[in-house]
Write a structure and sequence with these properties.
Helix content is 48%, strand content 4%. The protein is mainly α. It has a two-stranded antiparallel ribbon with strand order 1-2. The chain is flat and about 90 Å long. 2% of the residues are buried.
C-alpha cells in the first residue's frame, strides 16, 4: 500500500508528520523497511492502517465512506456524529452514549459521572476499611516476657 501511494499519489502526502516519517525510513540488508535509528514511524503507520481499512474494510458505507468519492467541503472534516451511529449500537449500549448538545450539557454530564463514581468509591471504602484497619502496637510492651536475642546468633552459626 505504501509503495503504491508513494509512486502514484505523492500529492496526497501533505502532512509534515507523515512526510518526516517517510524521509527517515531505511531498508535493512534483509530487505525489511523500517524507521531509522533515533526516529519513529508512528504517523506513517497510522496512515497505513487507515488505508488498509479503506482498501480491505467491509461495510464502510455504514460509516459514510464510499471508495472513490470525495466529500464536499461541509462534510470533509465532519467525522462520525451521534445521529449517524446510534442506530447501529446494540440496545444495551445506547444508554451509555447520551447525546450532548452543548458544552454546558457535557460539563453537567461529567460532574454527574464524577459524583456517581465518588458515591461508589465511598461505599467500597465503607466495606474495606474494617478489613484493612491496623491497630497501633506499642513496641515497648513485652507483657513481662523477656526473650534473649542470642537465639538468632545460634541460628546464624
Amino acid at each position: 500500500i505504501l509503495e503504491t501511494h508513494v509512486k502514484e499519489y505523492k500529492d496526497k502526502f501533505v502532512t509534515e508528520n507523515i512526510t518526516n516519517d517517510l524521509m527517515t525510513l531505511v531498508r535493512k540488508k534483509n530487505g525489511k523497511i523500517e524507521h531509522g535509528p533515533g526516529f519513529h514511524d508512528d504517523s506513517l503507520f497510522s496512515y497505513l492502517i487507515a488505508l488498509y481499512v479503506y482498501y480491505h474494510g467491509k461495510n464502510l458505507h455504514r460509516f459514510g465512506f464510499v471508495r472513490g468519492s470525495v466529500p464536499d467541503e461541509e462534510n470533509r472534516n465532519k467525522g462520525l456524529v451521534y445521529d449517524d451511529i446510534i442506530e447501529y449500537l446494540p440496545e444495551e449500549m445506547k444508554d451509555q452514549f447520551i447525546p450532548v448538545k452543548t458544552i454546558d450539557d457535557y460539563t453537567a454530564h461529567i460532574r454527574n459521572e464524577i459524583e456517581r463514581a465518588r458515591r461508589e468509591m465511598s461505599l467500597v471504602d465503607e466495606v474495606l476499611n474494617p478489613i484493612n484497619k491496623v491497630e497501633n502496637f506499642d513496641d515497648d510492651r513485652t507483657h513481662g516476657v523477656n526473650i534473649s536475642l542470642s537465639l538468632f546468633d545460634e541460628l546464624n552459626s
